[in-house]
Structure formats: structure tokens, C-alpha cells
Amino acid sequence: MGETSACDRLTAELKTLRDASELTYSAITAQAEKQMPPVKLGKSKLSAWFSGTNVPKKDDDAAFSYLVALLEARAKKHGVPSKGIEWWRARRDEAAAERNPSAAPTKPSPRPIPPATTLPPAEPHPGDVAKAAQLLRLLPFDGSWRRWLENAPAMFKVPLTVSDPVRDAHRRLEKDLPDYVDPELHDAHRDLLTALADLCWELNGMNDISDEGQPVLEVSYPGTSAERNELNRQACQTRDAFIPAYCTMINLLNRKNLLPPAALRPDAAHHPAGPARAPDNTHAHGDTARLREAAAEPRALRVGQGLPERARELRQARQDLADQGLGEPADEAWEHGTTALQDFHHTDPAEPDWVLCLVADRPPVAVAAPVWQEITDAGRADVGQDAFAAIGFPVPPANGAAPWLIQADAQTLDLDGGHWGPGRLERHQNGVWRWHPRPSLGLQEGRSARNWTSSQTPSLRLRVLLTLPWTGTGALEITKPRRQDLEQQLPHSQLAGAMTLLSARRATNLPAARWPRTPHGNNTSRSLSYTCTLSTPDGAPALQANTMLSLPTTTESSVIVCAEVLIDDTDAWAALLQPGQNTRLTLQEAQAVLLGAWETAADLLPKTIGAPDLRWSAPPTIELRLSSERPAPNGVLPPLAQVLDLTSFGDGEDHRPGMAVMITATPRLDDEERRDLLRQALVHMARAFGYIDADLEALH
């Protein structure tokens, strides 16, 4: 048996495959339940298989085969070659025989055979021969349809040269009677038809856009990018289940001598058709060997192979870049949406390969393979798991119109065209690449915009709220030492300074010195809340500053951080100030408070969870909110202009109780960048809310 048992080898191989697939038990179970019929792969079964507690049973082959097909399809996208279901079944059977020796197959004692005779090969049933020939006619194993399905990274668009043969085969095979006589062939054919039906269901739901000049089926647009990505994921899932089922069937036909020699010979297409006859099984093994030898020989790839409608463009782009290191094709071309792509070798074997990328309305670009991998990794965490649909493709330099290169030593590159919006991929000093959004402004409101406002009715709220959609936050925690550090730093924070300055500008020293944990503020290892309150002698709150942070929950997948200053009651604050002081804030004061809140939320509070440098799963945002929230006696909210002087913005609609703006940007910026971006956001907000003459001069 060797130094390592068969059970241990199977367990190790399964663990390695699952690690490469990056799928959790929950994800595997969820995918299995979506199959028709559902595949039973519960967490307890998976745990037992991957820990080696149990060996998959032979009568549970459907679940084992689906698990292998799912994991190998995912692992293949990460560069791990597939071993095939027959290899895995062999390892499973070895482990089962070791665990239960009585279950091991025994070889019967051979009968003595006269020296002059040999055992004839077992003749397959004539009906099985006919059914095998029908399958190979409809779905030839060397057809371009299979190569496209195996190599396509996504299923947003499927060429009609692929979809038509597959759908036609399904229509004919589902009515092809009688069934196989051989039990193994019967079961494999049933599994193949089930997987084929699932794939055709997805293809039938796509739109034929051949009348628009593209002979393809395209995933429909159900409303949002996330929903379209989900349709693509489902199509890829059925494709990844169909290919292993087809390969299993073909391998079984070969093992049972049902692959006709004419179908195996590379020159079969040149032989004239003759009368039908039973296969000559005496040549089957030799033909199989020739097929394997032919498959082992490297085939010369053509520029544009696999994507004939874009071949001319790819050839021209390759020609334009040939003298800059673009060598021969390394793989077939593929398409992502309207973007054509193909891998090429470097003319210098010591240098990394290229990915040639043709994006509509942009000059062709060849990206060094290591940088291309970083692009893929940067967007892979998107909910749709389609990196390019999320972050898009490289953008050429300003005014660039000629084909260009992104070398392996590049430090930055701009990306656009995905639903994350424009951004930049940067290589940090430690060699780690990170995507950052290009700053943009909007008026949408995030789902957490009104968190921590229940039962509060301040005269004025100046709030900054960050949404940080990091990946891999499961291990983050607010530790005791970090919490203690925060408690020592809050009295000296920018937020505390901005709050203190409001009273100092009114000739009164009211320092924001005490920052107790907020009562009932949900202070746990995954959330924090601190409040500094300035009150009158009789306990009426006048000014208040709040800081909050919450790690992801079941209803919110992002880290949420908030810092704000509230004027609880202008009369109470006036009672703390020197007589005759005006409690109406100026725009410059509001700007200073928002800057202090932003810096505290972006730089100080994340230190409590280790200030992680993680990848984004969506663009981070900063929301600024200025609102009057204390109702008048008649129940109507007073206008914001009553507590915040907006005259510097010019004439406008002064009846509004509040305004808000969302900034899409990396929250951690240097002081000058943060100040400039905040001013731009406030002017954008003011104009959108009716102050059409607002400009940056109002904030200087």
C-alpha cells in the first residue's frame, strides 16, 4: 500500500482541489441544491469526506461526481488542471477497498485456455452501437463546440456555432429510443441528458442577436448588472456540469470499444462513406492509441482561432505589436461581452506571456500576464464573481490612439467599463496591488445612511458615514488593547478638535474631553460606539459628538464607520456660551466639522480592527449629511438654512430641511486631497439641491 494510505491520499487530493476552487461548504451545498433534481451534498457529508472520516460510497456516485465536476471546473479557472471523474473514482474505490477489504473486487481464477486460442473481445449490443454512433454524429468529441465550452471564461455571449449543435443534439437525443442495454452506458447516458437539458434551458433563455450582426446568443438584461451576472453564473454552472458528464460518456464508450475507428482517425473526414457495418473491435485499441498520440502532439494555434468573427481585428493588432514582443498564440481567442481576448507568448521565452485585449472604441492593448492576473484578482470578489464585468478593462493613456503595452513592471493602470465605475490599479511599495476608485460624486443614499439615528432629533446633524466593502473581514475583531488606544486618542482626535472649535470661535472654552462608551451603544468585539456630550448644568444636552463602527452582519456585508457632530439644542448651547453669541453655524465651520469627522472615521476608528489593507468587493463610499431634524411645534422640520448659514452659496431653495451627497473614493487620503474633494462634493450637493450659483469660492 505504500507509506501513505489510500484513504489519506483521497482526503489530501479532495482538500487540495477544494482549496483551489475557493468554495466553502455552504457554497457547495447551495449549488448542489439548485440542480434538477437536487444533489444531496449536506455540510455533514462534505465534512466527513474532506476530513477522511468517511469514504464516498459507490452508490452515492451522483453526489461524488457532481462534487468533483463542480470543484474541478472552479479550480481550472485558477490554473489547476482537471484529472477527470474516472481518475477520482479510481482513488475513491482504492480508499473504499482499503477501508472495507471485503468490498474490494476479487478476480476470478481464469479458466485454462488452450495455447492456440485467444479470448475474443466482448461484442457490444447492436443497439448500443447504433446509439453511440448517433451521439457521436450529433456531438462529435473533436468538435469546435466542445473546445469553446471548455475554454470560455464566461457565458455572456455564446456563438450560434456552439448553441445550435448543442440544442439540436438535445432535441434528438431526448427522443432517441430504446435505451442502452449496457447498464453503465444507460446510467452515463441518463446523466449526460440531464446535464444537457440543464444547459439547453440556459441557452433557450438567452437572446438571439444575430439580426444585429453578431451570430450569438446573449444573456438577457433583467434590470441590473448584479442580476445579469447571476444569469451568467447559472449558465457557467450548467456548462461546468455538462462537460464532465459528456467526457465521462465518451470515455465509457471508448472503454467498451464503441468509438468507431473511423471517428478516431484524424484523416477520417477524407474517407468516402461506405455501407454501415459493425465496428471492427480488433482495431479499437490501436486507434485509441493513435488518438492519444495525436492529442499529445501540440497543435499550431492561429491568431483569432475560436473567435472567427474577430480574427481579422486580432491579426491586425498582433501585427501592430509584433515588434514589441508579441509572439505566437498561446491559446484560443475568447470573448467577454464585446471585448475580444487572446493569450500570446512573448518573443523572449524568458519573459511572461501577454493577453491581447480588444475593447470597443479603444486601441488594442497587450497586457503582461502577471498584471492581467492582478486585474482578475482585483475584481474577483465582486458579488457577480466576474472581474471584468466589475472593474472593466485597461484604459489607454490620455490621447492614446495607437496599440500599446502594459509591461510586467507597470506600477499603475487605469480601468473602466465595469459597473464599479472608473478606477486605478496600483502596485504598493510592498508589491501588493490594490484597486482604488476614481473619485466621483452622486446623490444616492446608502442603506446604512440613517444608522444610529433612532430617537434623535438634533437641531443640526453634520455626519460623515463610510461604507467599506472589504473582502475577508471574518477574522477582524475589535480587541481590548485597540479599544483602549482609541479611548485615549478620541479626546485628541480631529473630531474632538472640530467640536471644541465651535465654542472657541464664540469666546467659550468647552473642550470635548470626555468620551465614554455610549450607553446601550452595542459595544462588542464587532462594534463600538462612543459619545462626547456637552450639557447645561441642569443636564440638557447642547453639543454632542459620536463615533461608531460596525463589522459586517447578516444584513450588511460592509464595514460601516461613522463620525458626526450634533447641535442637540441651540438654546442649551447658547446657555453655555458667552452672552450674545450666535449659534447659527457658517459654511466654513460646517466644512471644518465634516473634515474632522472624515479624518476620524477614515484614519482613527479603523485602527481598532487593525487598519486592514484588504481588497474591495465593491467601490467604497463616503456620505456627507447636513440636516435639521428637530420638528417645530407644528411637526414640520425647519429648513436647514435656519441653523446653517447658506448665503455663501447664493440664492437657493431655503425650505429644505437637509442635504446629502455621496462620494465614491478611497476614504484614506492626504489632507489636501480630502479637503479638495470635500469642497467639490459640497458644491455638487448645493447645486443639486437648488443653489445653482454655488462655487468653490464660497468654501474658502
Q: Helices and strands: which structural class?
A: alpha+beta
For the record, give the distance between the C-alpha atoms at the N and C termini, rounded to a whole number.
80 Å
Counted beta strands: 20
* Low-confidence runs of at least 5 consecutive residues: 103-119, 262-298
Number of helices: 20
Strand content: 15-25%
- Compute the CA-based radius of gyration: 33 Å
Helix content: 25-40%
The largest pleated sheet is described as: 7 strands, antiparallel
- Main sheet: strand order: 14-20-19-15-18-17-16
Q: What does the overall shape look like?
A: elongated
Mean pLDDT: 85
Brief summary:
The protein is α+β, with helices and mostly antiparallel strands.
Features:
700 residues; alpha+beta; 7-stranded antiparallel β-sheet; 6-stranded mixed β-sheet; 20 helices
Structure description:
With 700 residues, the chain is α+β, with helices and mostly antiparallel strands. 37% of the residues lie in helices and 15% in strands. The protein contains 20 helices and 20 strands. Strands 14-20-19-15-18-17-16 form a seven-stranded antiparallel sheet. Strands 4, 5, 6, 7, 8 and 10 form a six-stranded mixed sheet that branches.
